[in-house]
Specification:
- With 421 residues, the chain is an alpha/beta fold.
- The chain is built from 10 helices and 20 strands.
- It has helices spanning 55-59, 173-180, 228-235, 252-266, 285-288, 291-300, 316-329, 367-370, 383-393, 396-402; strands at 4-10, 43-47, 62-64, 84-88, 92-96, 105-109, 115-119, 141-143, 150-157, 163-166, 198-204, 207-213, 240-246, 275-280, 305-307, 354-358, 361-365, 372-374, 410-413, 416-419.
- Strands 11-12-10-13-14-15 form a 6-stranded mixed β-sheet, sandwiched between helices. Strands 3-1-9-5-6 form a 5-stranded mixed β-sheet.
Length: 421
């Protein structure tokens, strides 16, 4: 099962604005008519029932949305770039790769049709119509489009099941699942026979629930030993746990305590989930002979246990009925992983322009102006003059003067460098 993937996504860049002027017969003062560039496409992740795993994201790891098209004359706006939509199975959690903790979560797509915009396309650049003023009626500048957002993401598929079946390897989980549902897991007499979580539907009277076998839990599973991290994530969405213990073990109660410790160390919320404990393999003579001893050991730790035989079916109907009863008592809102409340954050304002010195050059930091471009066939010697008009409007000229600039000093803003008059 492919239930984890690491991908890189990049939204589309915005298109360029255009430097253009009207050229019409009998219109002597046509003025600027350069159109704006189109917005870059977003990267959107959507939960789709037609997708069952994350296999495709293991084969291809880099994704990029379309860029916006450039503007054109006659105030023609460039076409927006198409969004890139990535389909994932319901139950997929999307998070940042570079962050840890609750703040790294981007989206929990636990229902079909849910969508999340994970990278926003860059805004298109402005055409020269936006730079016309009463004193500069023929602006020769426009803007580059903004770069699209780029992120490294982790996709994790966490199965959506009502009840999770946990326990040490070879406790008989696969046998139990096949006995109470139509699931057909691989069954063999060696540890880690099951290499992926298996789902089955259990019917109890006229009702039913989804049971997931969660394999791979051993000591230090919370540290990733065995297949711990690969499977522990699937326990998070379950509402109730059935803890199956091997009755032939030297200490069934100690086995139960160890697995519960691994759950709590992985996520403290897992250790608090409602849990039924069942001792398996009571059909074996050596287990039947020490039932009283096993009962006493669990009583000492305050745990009520069910005695079952997955192989013969003994005790399973009662266990499943109790699981259904417990499931109905647990509010649905408690299921699934904890997701931070969505909070509206207004888009950040552009950082104010700044001035600093690099050697003998005064460097102006102004993202809006750093994107300034001109026509390829235009003499760029006029550009600094127009750029200075924009700097004056934004208060950068005064900042340069406060920084001690003198005539003849060099100034740089973005890709342009000129001599201060």
């Amino acid at each position: 099962m492919f239930d984890w993937a690491e991908i890189t996504v990049r939204a589309g860049d915005g298109g360029k604005g255009t430097v253009s002027f009207r050229h019409e017969k009998h219109v002597p003062f046509g003025g600027p008519d350069g159109g704006d560039g189109g917005k870059g496409g977003d990267v959107v992740i959507v939960a789709d029932e037609a997708v069952s795993n994350l296999r495709a994201f293991r084969r291809k790891r880099n994704y990029k949305a379309d860029r916006g098209r450039d503007g054109a004359g006659r105030k023609k706006h460039g076409r927006n770039g198409a969004d890139l939509v990535l389909a994932v199975p319901p139950g997929t959690v999307v998070s940042h790769k570079s962050q840890i903790g609750d703040t790294s979560l981007i989206a929990d797509l636990d229902r079909p049709g849910q969508r999340a915009v994970v990278a926003k396309g860059g805004r298109g650049g402005k055409g020269n119509t936006h730079f016309a003023t009463s004193t500069n009626q023929a602006p020769q500048i426009a803007q580059q489009g903004e770069a699209g957002g780029e992120l490294e993401l982790i996709l994790e598929l966490k199965l959506i099941a009502d009840v999770g079946l946990i326990g040490y390897p070879n406790a008989g989980k696969s046998t139990l699942l096949s006995a109470v549902s139509a699931a057909n897991p691989k069954i063999a007499g060696y540890p880690f026979t099951t290499r992926e979580p298996i789902l089955g539907v259990v019917e109890v009277g006229t009702k039913s629930f989804v049971l997931a076998e969660i394999p791979g839990l051993i000591e230090d599973a919370h540290l990733g030993r065995g297949l711990g991290h690969d499977f522990l994530r699937h326990v998070e969405r379950t509402r109730v746990l059935i803890h199956l213990v091997d009755g032939s073990s030297a200490s069934p109660a100690a086995d139960m305590a160890q697995v519960n410790t691994e759950l709590s160390l992985f996520d403290s919320a897992l250790g608090r989930k409602p849990q039924l404990v069942a001792v398996n393999k009571i059909d074996l003579p050596q287990v039947e002979a020490k039932l009283a001893e096993i009962t006493a050991s669990f009583k000492d730790v305050g745990t009520h246990v069910f005695f079952v035989s997955a192989a013969s079916g003994r005790g399973l109907p009662g266990l499943m009925a109790e699981a259904m009863k417990l499931l109905q008592s647990v509010p649905a809102a408690e299921a699934g992983i904890r997701v931070p409340r969505k909070i509206f954050h207004p888009p950040p304002k552009s950082a104010p322009p700044g001035v600093h010195k690099e050697g003998d050059i005064f460097v102006v930091t102004a993202p809006v102006l750093e994107r300034v471009i001109t026509r390829p066939d235009e003499d760029t010697s006029r550009l600094p003059g127009e750029l200075r008009l924009q700097l004056a409007r934004m208060g950068v000229t005064k900042a340069l003067e406060r920084a001690g600039i003198k005539p003849g000093d060099r100034v740089r803003c973005g890709n342009f460098e000129w001599e201060w008059p």
